[in-house]
Amino acid sequence: xxxxxxxxxxxxxxxxxxxxxxxxxxxxxxxxxxxxxxxxxxxxxxxxxxxxxxxxxxxxxxxxxxxxxxxxxxxxxxxxxxxxxxxxxxxxxxxxxxxxxxxxxxxxxxxxxxxxxxxxxxxxxxxxxxxxxxxxxxxxxxxxxxxxxxxxxxxxxxxxxxxxxxxxxxxxxxxxxxxxxxxxxxxxxxxxxxxxxxxxxxxxxxxxxxxxxxxxxxxxxxxxxxxxxxxxxxxxxxxxxxxxxxxxxx
Length: 250
Hints:
Elements: H1 30-53, E1 57-62, E2 77-82, E3 102-103, E4 118-119, E5 125-132, E6 145-151, E7 165-178, E8 191-198, H2 203-210, E9 214-219
Antiparallel strand pairs: 1-2, 3-4, 5-8, 6-7, 6-9, 7-8
């Protein structure tokens, strides 16, 4: 009797990897969100630094020395871009038109125009005084502080030739100078008009003090930054001798 040997059972092999479902990418990944926030923060910080470095404001600046009492005109001021930070409110921005207002104190050339230096429109009147060109400094200009003297000059038609010198207007602000000749044919006989601001009630006294005599204009050195606007020095009655000013310029 033959016997059948059972066949050997093959051992089971290793199991294969279990397939997993591929997940779609998550757009709310924390690393992605953090990266976006980092980029936005860098942009905002950079923009703030740039804007802070260029935080300038346009304000008015004087084009030249202007004495107290000057009635501001467009040519007296120029716009300037400056960085003032917290002090910006103390100066007049270019969005405000100061033409026609009066300086309550002197302002130097290039100085920013403070709000506190402005007064409302002046009640003074503008008086035009005829002056021979040789009796006024060549550099006489608007905004300067001057004294005006009356002197005896028969050539100018004066009847009083006693030699007295009288102060007609003291500490007046020049508002305009017109009629000056700039050519080679201009001579000392050319008459210019020097417009000064004086209180209306002083006009008769000023004209009486002139008395048909020639006028000499004396410019005070620079502008007195400590002087505030006010009426010109009262006129001296005609005939009262005073210290003579320097002689007329050539």
